[in-house]
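Homework-ish question, so no full write-ups if that breaks the rules, but can someone show me the predicted structure for this set?
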Amino acid sequence: MESLTTITIVAIIKVAILIGALMTAAAYLVLLERWIAAWVQDRLGPNRVGVPLTNIRLFGLGQPLADGLKFIFKEENVPEQVDKFLFTVAPISILTAALAIFAVIPFGSSLPPDLGIPGIHHAIQLVVAPQLDVGLIYVFALSSIAVYGVILGGWASNSKYSFLGGLRSSAQLIAYELPLGLGILGVVLFAGSLRLEPIIDQQAASGVWNVFVQPLGFVVFLVASFAESARLPFDLPEAEQELVGGYHTEYSGMRLLMYLIAEFLHMVTAAFLITILFLGGWHFWGITGSGGDVTWPIAILRVIVLTVKVLLVIVFFMMVRWSWPRFRFDQLMALAWKVMLPLGLVNFVAVAFVSEFAWNAQEHRVSSTWAVVLAMWVVAIISWWLAGSLSPLATDNRPRTDLPDAASFGELN
Amino acid sequence: MQPNDPNIKWVEEPKLGITGKMYLPLLFQGLTTTTKHLFGPKVTVSFPEARPTVGNPLIYRGVHRLNKDEQGRVQCVACFLCATACPAHCIDIIGAESPWPDREKYPQSFVIDELRCIFCGMCEEACPVDAIELTSLLDLTGRSREEMIFDKEKLLSVYDQTKDAEPMKSASMGGVVC
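A: Not a homework solution, just the prediction itself:
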């Protein structure tokens, strides 16, 4: 057993690596986002800024540095009417929560044992808080705090634009937490654990990623995580074309930067969760192995596989942004309550059924695997078809004439 | 107008087909389109390194020039037609008696304020001797307002700069376009 000091030092090193990587990633994801936006629109994108004070351009890789400098030197305008305390607390809380989620998210499997470092006898797990049994509940608790950041920001700004933006986004975030939870429940049932590492281990051991067994849960979780991270087609909190800026209308300078980083971190979190819960985490057939006995090449390979998968999911997020128009607010709510919630329940019931009668995570049988996968796909397609044809999203734009005061309402304007 | 006005005709939206109701097929349709454009050819011109191509330089309206005749004299006869036609009042001419026997007047000073000019090409249309023309030079820059006021020497030098690439437009004057 390691001493408390060793555990603390190891944890601090992991936190330092993680925060450094996340902040750099957030900066470069902005660049990637702008590149993909440009390429999809047949433009070249930012490609000028390279090494400062030289003419070396490096395909624009210096752009995040320039963006960061710009934000640091920008005037930080605090409007007179705001609640100064909450105005500062709101972005800090949302960024803290977004960073704290990564305490339980593994960024690899583990380092090989016997590193030769005195005081460390076990293999170091590549997650800041290993053995945290409430892992997914912790993720949920912290992602709910994002709602606080949003609505506090909107409220403290004391401006109608911010307030309406905050209300919209809190309604959206709360509505989509249900399908998000239902999507996760199926995975938790299969793995028999709320920790993220056993969920990966279970997928790696069976070699069947959850996306193949639970396609319906995957789609529900994917859609819900798009909405939770406020990405298009669900970016109503800060719909640039309709709202001034949503809940961060009044923000500028470093406080705005905190909101923007938190938004990108939400997307990174969503990509990590999608990868870990449904796409097998660090597992890839034939490359990474599946057991706990890890050598150096395998440890590094697992980190690389996980990172590549997460990056691909993020690229998918960014591509979807330019492929789909934004939902109207009533359609957004109808999708959450009328489509995604029932589908999530169907998936949950199917998974419960399967794990009770056919699937056992501990003694996994190949013969029944194909039957289970087939059955789950049939369930997914039938329920998706039913949901699509029974509750189409409302598309009627005409004003309501059944209300008694519809006519007088028109006269008022 | 009230929402229940009988004059309002509501156009029915097209009914969704099976792919529209299933929604995911349409997502993949959209994704293929965006992916095609992701790797497709780009339209951006990296300006200082690459020059934008001007479709037809003869009809492009860029920086002005004052044409010279075969003997190198300014062709302008100081008739003030261009200054009169100019809707932005950016042409300022001082006419004087011509030193040459074949014309009565010539411009002692011919100044165009390129910052006021709206590049409409009316001066070019108005000129009876095809002395003023718009070239295809498009990157007109300067560091001060004074620098952007082009006098006669500057306008004649624009002619020297562009005469090989862009011959004079009028056929009667030896150009290629009537």
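Now go work out the reasoning yourself. Hint: The two ends of chain A are 74 Å apart (CA to CA).
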